[in-house]
Amino acid sequence: MADLRVGIIMGSKSDEAVMQKAADVLEELGIGYETVVSSAHRNPARTAAYATEAAARGLQVLIAGAGLAAALPGVLAAHTTLPIIGVPIASGALNGVDALYAIVQMPPGVPVATVGIDNARNAAMLAAQILALGDAAVGKAIETYRDKWN
Fold first, then answer.
1. Tens-place pLDDT, residues 115-147
2. Which of 10, 67, 101, 115 is the most exposed place for a label (fewest CB within 10 A)?
3. Do the beta carbons of residue 87 and residue 119 sit within 8 Å?
4. Is 93 buried (19+), middle (13-18) or exposed (0-12) by CB count in 10 A?
5. Are 87 and 64 spatial neighbours (Cβ–Cβ below 8 Å)?
6. What is the pLDDT of residues 139-148, one digit of tens each?
């Protein structure tokens, strides 16, 4: 696996099936990643430490999946200047709409890019596009990947 460049963080082990789709795309593109379960509510100190230490460990983009109140992407954004991509997870009575609103409605100065509900594949593609700004090989891998879908 390539050097770690992307962190995939999920608020609960139950989010794993959705977030695995991001890992699959990154793997196909040859982008190194790690996956971590860390809840913004149940493990706030560990979540903050993960975000604070991510850049020093070489991570360049964080993808965060969360359902219900979906605080995880925003908490990560509060503790790092790395790009954060939020994936709202379909769960609960509102089937992910609450998570979508929670992630997309961040206050000024603390942005979180947001993809559609359960759309971890697009989160990985967006992370790859961010990385491609400084890495032509990633850009070429994206072109090859997208050609398969045309």
1. 999 999 999 999 999 999 999 999 999 999 998
2. 101
3. yes
4. exposed
5. yes
6. 999 999 998 8
